[in-house]
Amino acid sequence: MKIAHDYRNAGLDEKDAAMLEYAEKITLNPNQVSKKNIERLRRVGWNDRDILDIAAVTSYRNFITRMADALGVGLTEDYKNLRKDYVQSLMVGKQLL
Questions:
Q1: Is this prediction's pTM over 0.70?
Q2: Counting beta carbons within 10 angstroms of the beta carbon of residue 50, is it exposed (0 to 12), middle (13 to 18) or buried (19 or more)?
Q3: Residue among 64, 96, 87, 62 nearest 54 (CA)
Q4: Distance in angstroms (rounded) separating the CA atoms of residues 74 and 80
Q5: Which of 38, 77, 36, 80 minimizes the C-alpha distance to 55?
Q6: How far apart are CA 12 and CA 24, in angstroms?
Q7: What DSSP designation does 82 have?
Q8: Band of pLDDT at residue 15, cut at 50, 70 and 90
Q9: 89: number of Cβ within 10 Å
Q10: Across the chain, which distance is largest between two alpha carbons, in Å?
């Protein structure tokens, strides 16, 4: 749960922290992604295929979330059976059940 709440203080290694920083930038400020971000990922051990995968998965997740929000799609009943702290980490900025 530490990663979901604050990956910067979750004790991750530099490689994983760089990946999440990149994913966060894609999510929050995609127009600010630069060559420096890609170079940092390479420096900590990600190759170009890995970087493509990170960008694709992050972008796809953002697309699905935005589509659901745009269409007013709500959570299914299955979420009611999950731990509240887990649901909260998934639903940042959204109304909980």
A1: yes
A2: middle
A3: 62
A4: 12
A5: 38
A6: 15
A7: S
A8: very high
A9: 14
A10: 43
